[in-house]
Amino acid sequence: MRITQKVLFGNFMRDINKNRSELARTQSDLSSGKSVRVPSQDPTSFQRSRIIEENIRKEEQYQSNISGGLRQSRLAQEALDETIDRLIDVKRILTQGATGSSGESVRTNMAEEISGIRDSMVFTLNQSYGDRFLFSGTNSSVKPLDPDTPGAGGVADNSNTTAPTVSVADGVKLEMSVTASELRDTEAGDLFEVLSSIEQALRDDDGEALNGLLDGIDSTINHVTTVASRLGNNINRMEFIFEQYETTKIAQRSDVSGLVDTDYAQSFSELQRIQVAFESAMAVHSTMFKNSLLDYL
Amino acid sequence: MRTLIEISKSGLRSAERSLAVTSNNVINADTPGYTRQRVDKSPIGMQKTGFHAGLGVNITSITRMRNQMNDVVINEKRQDMGFLKEKAKIFDQLEASMASDSGGDLDMRIGRLFDSFSELSTDPQDKTVRNTLMTEAEQLTSKLADISRNIDRTSDLVKDSAGSTIGNINQILNDLNSLNKAITQAQSAGKPDHASMDIQVKKLEELSGLVDFESQVTDKGALQLRVGGVLVLDENKASTIKGEIDDVNKQFGLRLDSGKMINSAGGKLGAEIEMYENEIPKMKDRLNSIASTLVNEFNAIHSQGFGLEDDTSRNFFNPEFTDASNIRVDETVRTNVDHIATSDVAGEAGNGEIASRIADMRNEQVIGGRKLVDFSVDLISTPGRNLSEIRSNIEVRDSEIAMLEAQQEQEAGVNVDEELSLMIQYQNAYQGAARVMSAAQQMYDTLLSIAR
To answer: How much is the pTM?
Structure first.
């Protein structure tokens, strides 16, 4: 077999170029920390990683939704707790007022107190988050309770029956508040109606009526507590789902990393191997090229 | 006695000639297309009374050591290589314009828009969220326009490049035609024109990277070339190829000056035509289908809903523009983000039903049986997928060509060491012949001295 100088040189260039391109690849893998940066490096891994990333992105959005939802839900929950406390105050006043020992002037004072409690409850339930009134349902651009407009118990209801929701997962929505309409709708009738009946009975100094209202205030408290605990349940669910996303996110991130990130141990040993090949190619070829008959002529 | 002088003279001439051929080999060791040459010699003899006398040496011919078959095979591989390399180059450009390692690609832009709608469904009254959503929507439309523009630009570049490839092919065909003349004339005169034949080898090598052809050599030694079965180079005529471009329908035809149409399916030109006619338009179509799906699907839901300000239903994207190059958000919605529909009931500011339905669309298979984001990932990976496949093919072809070239080099290549040793051999032969002449001279002198 005739081996010409051109064959030697051609082989040398091919080997060197191959080594160089492998070196360049390993170098960029190591310096960027990624082995798949563009689809052509590994189309399947690239596609898979992008699809997982889309899923991560989606779930992070749900987490962000949940965070926003939780802020509003907690505000709503506080408002409900406050409302329950106020109702308990009402019950205390009512119980005192219902005993025969209370005189007319005491009862009038109590009636004033009830009226104050009612106003503060209206204020609490008109709580807003940004532009949104928490208890207005989806009609949240207007205050849910309006004491200046006639309505049941002297407070008009502007809320609707659809509670605002937050998307927490594909096709799953949780209510992040309750509507004033639902809150008011107790077994004993409208909540503010109950309050105004108590106020009226106190003003009328009507002990019998007051005794009759004790059951009403109890069931009102029960109703608000039930609604508040349902909201509490939703808050728990949101927190639980949020944590679940945290966990799956770690798994998914490590999936993406496995697909596109550099395996350092492997890359370094690869680097070593190519370096040896590269150096020996240089060494052997530079020795080969020196061998020429010219030196002996 | 005179024969002695003649014999040494033939020896001197042959050694000198051989040395010239060897020198030429050494000097051209690195010249592309060059084929090493060998001197063929034969002894001269004459029948004398009673015996046969040798009368020196004769150079019968100078041979080109080349395997023509091998050339044909290598050139076929080179046509394939030219095709693959050009395709790889174009796909590389397309990949660069579609996918990056910094994120912000089409798939992310679409995902982000869905994110914004999801966020908005939770907080329909938040102006900041609405503004962010509009920014995302505009980034998406400008991304689509950007990719569309890049694809168009690549298409134009490929078209122009095909034009200059045709120019190169015509130039080479012309050169080959001139070489044909020189080669056939020399052959009919009985003195092969080795230099022209070597240049022909080089020209054919160049041509094989550009276009697919079949070659044939006529009895007179002329080269005939056919592209797609049609003769483009004959004994005494080279055709000129002209590109006929229909930029609207993306058609690229090749017409000869004789009026015949030819097809090229290989080489650089074949790749350019295939990319221009098929691959690039296909990619553009898929991009446009993303744009039109976005417009139709978003509008279908958005137009059922209501914004914050009035009870009017609106489209989200302007339905008149459904191409990637011109997709845009409806002007009224763009200038007033309160018109982004979130509620399915007029006047309910806190209702995020419509926004949530749009956000849920990311899980629906609305385009080619796939989700929008998956489809986009597939689209931006397409050039890379092709590129990776072509690259592995190139590697295979490359080693095949290297092997065949080594085979050809075995036959036709110049080994400098070998030529140097031949040089010494011819030098010695020359010295020997000169010595014969000097011995003959001495013999004459001796003879003449007797006569004096």
So the answer is: 0.87
